[in-house]
Amino acid sequence: MEQEKEQDWYFTFGCGHGWEGFYCVIHGTYDSARAKMVADFGIKWCMQYPSAEAAGVERWGYILLEVRDAC
Predict the structure, then answer these.
(1) Is residue 1 part of a domain?
(2) In whole angstroms, what is the distance from residue 44 CA to residue 18 CA?
(3) Under a CB-based contact definition with an 8 Å cutoff, are residues 13 and 20 in contact?
(4) Residue 32 contacts by C-beta under 8 Å, 6 or more apart in sequence?
(5) Measured distance CA(13)–CA(48) in Å, rounded
(6) Which domain holds residue 32?
(7) What pLDDT tens digit does each residue of the chain (71 aa) get?
(8) Does some domain include residue 63?
(9) For the whole model, what pTM was predicted?
(10) Which of these, 1, 7, 12, 32, could form a disulfide with 28 (CB 3.0-4.6 Å)?
(11) Alpha-carbon span 23 to 10, nearest angstrom
């Protein structure tokens, strides 16, 4: 069984989630990064992406939210 690699994951927030217009980056596997996001924000976020481009960071002008600053 192949071990899932760690990488940076990009998380965005939806309208009304308290951090609209921001994104955060968490390093880990898909599952470990997601678990960290849920631990820090609960389910009040929108999507998880494998890259800044996929998340639309530049396209939508999202602002980086440091996870340690938000919690």
Answers:
(1) no
(2) 8
(3) yes
(4) 6
(5) 9
(6) 7-70
(7) 567 899 999 999 988 878 999 999 999 999 999 999 999 999 989 999 999 999 999 999 999 998 665 54
(8) yes
(9) 0.88
(10) 32
(11) 7
